[in-house]
Structure formats: C-alpha cells, structure tokens
C-alpha cells in the first residue's frame, strides 16, 4: 500500500499536503476509492480511502487509525557537520532514518564547509526514508546549529564525539544502549582541538569509531548503525 | 601525502597504472621530485618520489617500503544482490570498504534487477575508498555470481542471510567476531522462499538486521558495519 506523509491526522477527512497530493495524483495516478496509508511521523498510521481528487488536491477518508509506540528504548541524537558535497550528507540522513535515529543536528563548526543548508531537502529525504523503512516516527532534523548552541542545550546522559587524535576508547565499548545519547561527528579535517576541549569540558567523551579513517558521513552512519542495532539485540 | 594504487610494487622504479598516472599528472599536477604514497592493495605501502613524468606516463622511485598485516582477525564476506540503481550498490561498496570488508560478491538471484555489472566501476570505487580510508588491503570485488555458484564455494564457518519473513535471530546476537563470515543480502523484493531453502540446506542461518525494513544496500552496509566494528571492540 502506498504511504503518504501527513503531519496532522486528527480529523476523518484528510487533505494531503500539496507535494504528497501531487505524488498521489500525477505520479502514482491513484484513483478515488484506492486504499492508501498515511503517516503523521508521530506514531500514528492511518488506513484511508481516496476521496475527491483534483489536479493538485487529494483528500482521503480515514478508515482505520493505529498508534505505534516510540521505536527505541533510548534516544539516538547525531550532531554532524554537513559535508562539502551535500548529497553525502543527504545520504547520511537517508541511511540514519532507515537504520534508526531520533534526531539529526547539522553542525556548524570552525571547519564546516557550508554556512547554508537546504533544510527542506533534508526533511524530504527523511520523510522518504521513513516511508521506505515503514517507520511511523519521523526523526527531527534541526536547522544548522553552532557547536556552542548544541552544548548549551539540555544534555542527555551520554555525550560522545568522534575523535581521531590520540588513543580513544571505541564507541562500541563506551555506548550504553539503555541511555539517551548524543554523538558529535566533526567535518572533513575534523574538529579543532579548541572545539574538542569545548566538548570535553561539557562532559563529552572522545571515542573512536573503528581504526580506519572514515569520511564524515561514513563515521556518522557507522555510529548510528552501531547504536541502533545495539538497542535491538 | 597523495596515495596511488599500483598492483605491483616489487621493483624499485615503479610505473603508475595509466589512470593513476593521469590523476597524478593532469589532475593533481604533481611535479618530478614530489613525494607520493603507493598501495598495492595487498598490505604493502611504499613511499616514493616522482621521477620522469610524461603526459600520460608517471614513474616513481621507491624510497621506503612497509608491509602491513591483514586488517581483521576474521574475514568479512558480503554477497549482495545489486540494486536497480547502480549508484546505490556503488555506494554500498564505498562504505563497506571504508568501514571494513574483505570480499564483496555481487549476487545474481531470481529477483536481481540486472544481469550485467560494470565490474571496473566497482573496482574503481573500492580503490578510491581504500585510499580514502588509508587502508593497505584492497577488498576483492567478484564478478556477478549466481547463488548456486556462491553456495558451491568452500564455505566459511559462519554463513548467514538477511531474511524478513517470520521471526529470526538478530545478526547482532548470532555473529561471532572471531570467525570468518559470509552474509547474503537479497535484492529489492527479497530472496524467494526457494532461495531461502537453498541457503538453509547449505547451512546458512536466517537473521534479521534490526526491526525496520531496510533497502538492500542499507541492510548490506548495516551488516558490514556491525561485523567490522564488533571485531574492533
């Protein structure tokens, strides 16, 4: 059954957002009467039937409404410096949502190669990945955030950052799957040592994610994968 | 230091392969006398100095030769059905090489969407990822192989396959990091139940890789990541 994202599913006659409506009518060419699934990204999945269809409009009648609990026992939050090639960061967002993440913060660091970010694109990628992996919870994707602003936020019990210098404990040995975690992954060229000190004094622990040198998006994806799968053992 | 792939590093005056020579001369515009690194993909890393440079030729004089042991205690072999969009499979190859894999077999199954494969492209991706992650061992990338031919090969002690039907043990609980492993990941639409039976009777164990439905390349990357990182705890 085709799934569509619809932020609000409270009422019984639901108008699909423009982009989803376009996809339903012009791309999938669904007809009135067809069954579809609707996700609000907050645990609700609705089975519905296509009602009136216009060229750019599409409404659906709710047949059945199911609520799903949160998917993880402990929250996984990745704060990652966007890569120079945006497709690599978008790829990370897609994979992290598929594998399992709660929140992604694009991180502005001294060496971050970009000061702007197409947040709408990242949200589209996240929504598509949520549908693809048949999840019912849409991870939050924040606007570009400075390291200072991230540190100023209420901290989860586990705070880690990927760090290549010196010998650091492996994420796989440090990470506790039963506690909320925030993991910071630096940009190409890594965080500066000043930023690393900032993080340490905010209670972040430096970890390695395997021995090899990983690209930013690879390190972020590997950390997310380990944490999400470690919760599902 | 710029790294180049050169399958044979036995002699002391080394001619770079054409593609690498082109990259050195036309792209990086290296000059005679510049220091470069050479990798044979079999554990040898050479430090060399650029010698004669032609438009399409490039030779280097060996200054120092170092041998590195194999990177893993137990081999990781992934056999994965190529995706319809080749870039998704190439992405998996890149990430698997970065995170750590020994061998990748593109798998021809009943539902595999392609009967041809640009092996040279995959090898280029693997070589680039080896350099990127500063590894000295180049994983093997096989030609497109049928499931039957794969099963007929000498089996490693651990044989697993990703399977969504029914309740299966999680890869994370089944995988033993100290033993060589072969993991089969099916195509979009999964393996057929006949293929699953074939695998079972060949001693393969069905495993789940997390609860969510993952794309082929995501499942393959997640499995590789878990196994490689589990060896580095």
Question: What's the short story on this structure?
Answer:
Chain A has 233 residues and is an alpha/beta fold. Helices cover 31% and strands 27% of the residues of chain A.
| N-to-C span of chain A | 29 Å
- How many strands appear in the DSSP assignment of chain A? 13
CATH superfamily membership of the largest domain in chain A: SPOUT methyltransferase, trefoil knot domain
Beta-strand proportion of chain A:
25-35%
Task: Walk me through the structure.
Chain A is α/β, with parallel strands linked by helices. The first copy, chain A, has two domains: 65 residues, Beta Barrel (Ribosomal Protein L25, Chain P); 156 residues, SPOUT methyltransferase, trefoil knot domain (Alpha/beta knot, 3-Layer(aba) Sandwich), CATH 3.40.1280.10. Chain A is built from seven helices and 13 strands. In chain A, strands 6, 7, 8, 9, 10, 11, 12 and 13 form an eight-stranded parallel β-sheet that branches. The radius of gyration of chain A is 20 Å and the shape is elongated. The two termini of chain A are 29 Å apart. At the A-B interface, helix 2, helix 5 and helix 7 of A face helix 2, helix 5 and helix 7 of B.
């Amino acid at each position: 059954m085709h799934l569509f994202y619809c932020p609000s599913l409270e009422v019984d006659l639901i108008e699909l957002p423009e982009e989803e409506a376009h996809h339903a009518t012009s791309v999938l060419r669904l007809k009135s009467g067809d069954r579809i699934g609707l996700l609000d990204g907050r645990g609700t999945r609705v089975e519905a039937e296509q009602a009136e269809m216009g060229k750019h409009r599409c409404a659906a009648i709710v047949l059945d409404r199911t609520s799903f609990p949160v998917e993880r026992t402990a929250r996984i939050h990745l704060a990652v410096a966007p890569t120079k090639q945006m497709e690599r960061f978008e790829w990370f967002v897609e994979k992290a949502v598929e594998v399992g993440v709660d929140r992604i913060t694009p991180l502005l660091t001294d060496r971050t190669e970009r000061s702007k970010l197409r947040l709408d694109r990242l949200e589209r990628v996240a929504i598509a990945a949520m549908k693809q992996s048949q999840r019912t919870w849409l991870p939050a994707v924040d606007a570009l955030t400075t390291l200072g602003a991230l540190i100023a936020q209420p901290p989860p019990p586990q705070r880690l950052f990927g760090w290549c210098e010196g010998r650091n404990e492996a994420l796989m040995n440090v990470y506790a799957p039963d506690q909320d975690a925030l993991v910071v992954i630096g940009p190409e060229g890594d965080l500066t040592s000043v930023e690393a000190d900032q993080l340490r004094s905010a209670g972040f622990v430096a970890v390695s994610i395997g021995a090899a040198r990983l690209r930013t998006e690879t390190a972020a994806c590997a950390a997310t994968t380990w944490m999400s799968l470690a919760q599902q053992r």
